[in-house]
TrEMBL record:
Name assigned to this protein: DUF3185 family protein
Membrane spanning stretches: 46-64
Keyword Membrane: yes
Top-rank lineage group of the source organism: Bacteria
Keywords: Membrane, Transmembrane, Transmembrane helix
Length: 67
């Protein structure tokens, strides 16, 4: 496994974990209350979801990319 693919795999795993924890944070009571009053979930939930999505995409591209 090349260094690029190893970094891609690490980013992919990290991204999936961030998506999982971000979704749990999004469904939390604190986020629901914040969304009720402000119209948007907590910043922490959004940052975890966005960071997880970006990390997952970059990791997938690095793992799948040839040469």
């Amino acid at each position: 496994m090349t260094m690029q693919k190893a970094i891609g795999a690490a980013l992919l795993v990290t991204g999936v974990l961030l998506l999982f924890f971000g979704y749990n944070e999004y469904q939390s009571l604190q986020s629901e209350v914040s969304e009720f009053f402000t119209g948007s979930p907590t910043d922490r939930a959004l940052m975890m979801l966005i960071g997880g999505a970006i990390s997952s995409v970059i990791g997938l591209v690095l793992v799948v990319r040839r040469g």
